[in-house]
Each structure stands twice: as structure tokens, then as C-alpha cells.
Amino acid sequence: MSxxxxxxxxxxxxxxxxxAELSSICGMSPEQxxxxxxxxxxxxxDKAEAELHFSGACVAxxxxxxxxxxxxxxxxxxxxxxxxxxxxxxxxEREVHTLRAHLPGHTHLSAREGPQPWREPxxxxxxxxx
Length: 130
Description:
Elements: E1 16-18, H1 19-26, H2 30-39, E2 53-55, H3 59-72, H4 76-101
Helix pairs in contact: 2-4, 3-4
């Protein structure tokens, strides 16, 4: 077995990327990225420049959207909508984490999320009502 050289770059969300760099990182062609810009799903830092630059913060949601684009054979308009939803979900998750950080320690929810098992309220009656 031979060893492979791997080039790793740590991406900071404050970095800027060209269209070619973003295309390489996310696995989408520059033409596809240009179409996402036209739909308004991908916002360049300055549209007036000849070469568009993007924030490093758009990489994670764009990579998720690109993976779903390939896996489910979506069209780019669906990817544009999906990208908007992914960005909104990330924003809401950050807001929830911020709000939870302001709660007193004893009021935090348990680590288990999702549906909870049904329990008889206060031990009264049966499952049929009485």
C-alpha cells in the first residue's frame, strides 16, 4: 500500500474565495455558481468587481447543497431554494444556542431531543381515559 499526499487547508469564514476556488471546494462548476448568483441564493461580496469573490462562510451550506444536488439529481433552482433553507436553519440554530446560553443551568433541556415517550399524566386514570 502506498502513502498518499493530502493537501489540507483550514478555511476561516472570514476568508474570501474566488469563483474558481469555490468551484473547486464545493464540486460545482463556475457556470452553476453563476446561476446560483443569478437566483440570489449565492451572494458575492461585491458584484461590481470583474472577478467575483465570496465569503468563506458560504462554503459549508454550499457543499451540503452540492452533495444533495448530485445525490438527488436536483435542478439548480431547487438547489437555490435548498441553499436558502440551509442558511436559515444555520441561523436559527445559532440563535437557539445563544438563547440557551442565557438560561440558568437548571432550566436547560435534556440532551435527548425529539419525540418523548408517552407517560400517564400524574398517574391518574388509564390509557383509555379512566
